[in-house]
Amino acid sequence: SGLTPLQKHMKQNLGGARFRLINERLYKSDSAEAVEMMKKDPKVFQEYHDGFRHQVQSWPSNPVSHYIDELSKYPPKTVIVDLGCGEAALAKALHPKNFNVLSFDLLSDKTFVVEADICSRLPLPGSEPSSVERTEGEGQIVDIVVCALSLMSTNWLGCIREAWRILRPGGELKIAEVASRFTAVEDFAALVRDVGFKLKKKDDRNTHFTLFQFKKVARATIPEQEWSALLSRGGVLKPCEYKRR
């Protein structure tokens, strides 16, 4: 690139500072504000993912790589939705293996990624119960939803609710999150359970990340007041703060 080692180092430091700033804003705003930020300045999305890619290099392992290996063992044609997909690494790895992967994030790359507010409404079929009778909704086509380090906004629980709406009865929700974000892992699992999921598996062997596998179960409608109460418990996930390098 024609840069001296010192210039490269300075550029890297500037990029790291910019990444931390964007990262902090994404964790401390709701998803509608994040969408607005990206629409105003699409470069922000690229800057964030450039910084994220650099950050990943220092990790002992990457949850996305774990999910690529794990999902490769599922039957071909399995319908997988990747929420907060970033650069769509999951789709790029699994499409050639005959999996159907639908990738959603704040901005489209016009190839793999569909633009959506993942905490609000996804452009996919599915419904919520309309009464106190426990059901799993209707019209769904999705077998598995993956949230790999993507529960970022203050209203992240909306993403879990959308996962429930679009998953087939008994469908799987796979979540990977930075271990230091949890105030208490049990409280996080209980909150996801209250949206209509059963915890099937938890893996906290990795020092950096905790992995969860949930199964969708039947539930009744969630009245507005109850939903507000659930949202108010969202603090069980703290913002992720990257240290200066």
Automatic annotation (TrEMBL):
GO terms for molecular function: rRNA (adenine) methyltransferase activity. It comes from the Eukaryota. Keywords: Methyltransferase, Nucleus, rRNA processing, S-adenosyl-L-methionine, Transferase. It is found in: Nucleus, Nucleolus. InterPro entries: RRP8, RRP8_N, SAM-dependent_MTases_sf. Gene3D superfamilies: Ribosomal RNA-processing protein 8, N-terminal domain, Vaccinia Virus protein VP39. Its EC number is 2.1.1.-. CDD domains: AdoMet_MTases (cd02440). Pfam families: Methyltransf_8. GO terms for biological process: ribosomal large subunit biogenesis. GO terms for cellular component: nucleolus. S-adenosyl-L-methionine-dependent methyltransferase that specifically methylates the N(1) position of adenine in helix 25.1 in 25S rRNA. Required both for ribosomal 40S and 60S subunits biogenesis. Required for efficient pre-rRNA cleavage at site A2. Belongs to the methyltransferase superfamily. RRP8 family. This is Ribosomal RNA-processing protein 8. It comes from Pisolithus tinctorius Marx 270.
